[in-house]
Specification:
Largest sheet: 7 strands, parallel
Distance between the termini: 34 Å
Number of domains: 1
Strand content: 5-15%
CATH class: Alpha Beta
Helix content: 40-55%
Mean pLDDT: 92
CATH superfamily: Aldolase class I
Low-confidence stretches: 306-313
Shape: globular
Structural class: alpha/beta
CATH architecture: Alpha-Beta Barrel
Number of helices: 13
């Protein structure tokens, strides 16, 4: 599919036609009547961040009241609770902390791996870029050290929209689109599997959303050709404006979300999995998303802080995921980070 075709579908196609086409693509990639989910916890190791993202209601500037850094004891308690609930990974992220670099993060990773049997699905490309700069390392050197310390996979956080015009407006303190893609390419070269995301509905154009998809598809082509690491899944979600510096932005609707999801499934022909975002859309739209190209319900999210800070408080238990999938004739099965059924 060309970028112009994707743009035409996003702008003009009938909603239900899009859903039908995307569902057909979903079945070509994942023909089994299965919907997957993962049991994990989002652990924000700190909310102190230099980035100053205009879409974020969670961060605190250095010295601002309410800033924190989790202790080893607090981190351990959260991991133990996750394991007790059948969790297999922690999605571990912080912010662009002014003094926490690669060395300190590696010490934390080594402590986790020495004490807990759990995958560290950790950091984000902007965090890797920031930490590498703090410690005077190249991106490759930073990744080598983090992987050796226990980093098992990288989530697609910090992508927002992979167009620098938009990034300068909404996330001026974060790395550019090129560096985000470079971190992921280097991670794939080292055999790591990662995910890709899109936060849309802030200040980007529809064409810029398509440009974002095209850059992901191009990198995935290169990574798959090499073998080893690659993107396992794509997760789009809508910007939540409440309590942010962009609070006056009109929120994207459920229809906007379903259109974007469907076109993503059609355009990203080299991605096997597309995840529904119940965290921002709620259970009913997430269920409809399973007919618009999604084959995965993502995480049970024992804990989630960032989207909640922007006013979205949806929760979905394992039992509810099973029911939502079952009502559509699917079997909901727990997976691990790498989409292996448990």
């Amino acid at each position: 599919m060309s970028e112009n075709q994707a743009l035409a579908l996003l702008s003009e196609a009938d909603l239900l036609d899009l859903g039908r086409l995307a569902h057909g693509a979903r079945l070509r990639h994942n023909p089994e009547p299965i919907v997957t989910y993962v049991v994990d916890r989002n652990i924000n190791t700190t909310n102190i961040c230099l980035s100053g993202c205009r879409f974020c209601a969670f961060f605190r500037s250095p010295g601002q009241e309410g800033g924190y850094v989790l202790s080893r004891e607090e981190l351990g308690q959260k991991i133990e609770e996750t394991l007790a609930l059948g969790g297999t990974q922690i999605l571990m992220q912080g912010g662009l902390h002014p003094s926490i670099g690669v060395k300190e993060t590696c010490e934390t990773f080594r402590h986790i791996k020495a004490h807990y049997p759990i995958n560290i699905h950790g950091l984000s490309p902007p965090e890797v870029v920031h930490m590498a700069a703090l410690d005077g390392l190249s991106l490759g050197e930073a990744l080598d050290r983090l992987i050796q310390a226990g980093l098992g996979s990288i989530p697609g956080g910090g992508a927002e929209i992979l167009v620098d015009r938009v990034r300068r407006l909404i996330a001026p303190g974060k790395c550019g689109a090129g560096q985000w893609l470079e971190v992921m390419a280097l991670a794939h070269e080292r055999g790591l599997k990662t995910t890709a995301t899109m936060m849309f509905g802030s200040l980007e154009s529809v064409a810029e959303r398509v440009e974002h998809l095209a850059r992901l598809r191009e990198l995935q082509d290169r990574s798959l050709a090499r073998g080893g690491g690659h993107f396992t899944a794509f997760i789009p979600w809508t910007f939540q404006p409440a309590n942010t510096a962009l609070a006056r932005v009109e929120p994207a609707t459920a229809v906007d979300y379903l259109r974007m999801l469907a076109v993503s499934r059609l355009f990203l022909d080299n991605f096997q999995h597309v995840q529904a975002s119940w965290v921002t859309q709620g259970d009913k739209i997430a269920q409809i998303a399973l007919g618009f190209g999604a084959d995965d319900l993502g995480s049970t999210m024992i804990e989630e802080n960032v989207v909640a800070a922007a006013g979205a408080h949806f929760r979905l238990s394992r039992e509810e995921m099973v029911r939502l999938a079952g009502d559509l004739g699917y079997q909901a099965l727990q997976r691990d980070t790498f989409y292996k059924i448990i």
